[in-house]
Amino acid sequence: MAEAGASRLIFQWEAMGKDPLQSAIDIAEHVNENGMKCGVSINPSTSIEEIHPLLQTKLVDMVDILAVEPGFGGQSFNSIALDKIIQLREWKCSNNAELTILVDGGINKTTSKIVMESGADVLVAGTALFRHPQGLAEGVKELRVFHHNNLK
Asked: Which segments of the chain does DSSP mark as H helices, in order?
C-alpha cells in the first residue's frame, strides 16, 4: 500500500476476532514495518479502556472514534462519543502520548463545535457536506466559516 502512495492505514478494532489485542498488534507492526502510520477505529459501543493496551504499545498514533454505527451515512451523532473523546484526551495527556483523535459520524456545524471543544483533533464530515442543500462547496464553506467564528 505504501508503494501505491498510502501513508496511513486505520483498522477496525471490532474486526480483530478472538484475540483482538494480538491481532491489532500484528496489523500495526506490519503497517509500521511497511513505512506507513497506523490508526485504530472503534465503534460507539467499544470503550476506550479496551484499546488502552494497544495504545500503550505506541504502534498506533491515531484513534478514530465513530460517533455512529458503521455502515451508512446520514445517522445522527451519538453523544457517547463526547465521553470517549474526553477520556482519550485525558489518557493522552497522562501518558504523554503522541496521538491524534479523529471523530467520524454525524459531524455538522453544530456537532463539530462540541466535538472540537471536547478535544478532537480531526473531524470527518460526510452527509453534512455531500448532502448540503446548496452543494458540497457551500457545505465546506459553511463549516469553515462557522469554525472560524466560533472556535477561537
From this structure: 20-33, 48-56, 80-94, 109-118, 127-130, 136-150
* Cβ–Cβ under 8 Å, residues 146 and 109: yes
Could you tell me the pTM of the whole model?
Answer: 0.88
Long-range contacts of 97-103 (CB under 8 A, 24+ apart): 97/55, 97/58, 98/61, 99/55, 99/60, 99/61, 99/62, 99/63, 100/39, 100/61, 100/62, 100/63, 101/62, 101/63, 101/65, 102/39, 102/62, 102/63, 102/64, 102/65, 103/64, 103/65, 103/67
pLDDT category at 152 given cuts 50, 70, 90 is low
Reduced to 3 states (helix: H, G, I; strand: E, B; else coil), residue 45 is coil
